[in-house]
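>> received
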Amino acid sequence: MTEASTEHTMKHHRRPYANYAARTFLWEVSADGKVATITLNRPERKNPLTFDSYAELRDLFRSLCYATDIKVVVVTGAGGNFCSGGDVHEIIGPLTKMSMPELLDFTRMTGDLVKAMRACPQPIVAAVDGVCAGAGAMIALASDMRLGTPVAKTAFLFTRVGLAGADMGACTLLPRMIGQGRASELLYTGRSMNAEEGSQWGFFNSLHDSAQVLTAAQTLAAQLAAGPTFAHGMTKKLLHQEWNMGVDEAIEAEAEAQAICMQTRDFHRAYEAFVAKQKPVFEGD
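>> returned
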């Protein structure tokens, strides 16, 4: 494929996502079109996931790299809870009747949701209230930042249903977030991590009242969206990739990343604003 045809293909796929028609959750976009809020919306069951919602979330996060408008994503739940994990009746029950190939298809799909969240260039901010369990805890963990409430209870409760604590990347992501010993305790016991523990251990970036946590998350998202969003995407990429790098390799990757960012218009805007003693207005290019 030639450079011209590659550029044409990218332009063909890039499009606004403000009018995305969500099927299994709520999708709302801020007035300026830059911040999207995903609300898991089955409050009567504490917002459990289904086969369809897993797949739609995976596909959406995977395709957001082509969005021309969305710069940051907020994920939350309706009715005072974040997400209770996989629906017992709509997921766990059917899983007990599946063959091994079918089970592997499912577990790979759930892992693909985490992969898609980590690979999409937009920062993801989770607003976590109430129950945050199982796959819901993994969605929060796969986000870039987490804002919680005093009543947030986060549980990686896979062992409680007879499964390994190793699910959707938990054994990689959680130790890096809160430390190996603490992660081991939560993954072996399946107990809930309370909000105070989550804050002290670094799982939550901050705690807010239940009535304010979504507003706080959207405010943070708006601040990120007003920044150099191309560079934010580069930061997210390297935060993820450098887990598997040595120090020398990481320093070289960051040197290359900064050289790329120095070619952006946002870098020049920042310099020109500094010279003019003004605040830079970033546009993400």
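>> The radius of gyration is 20 Å.
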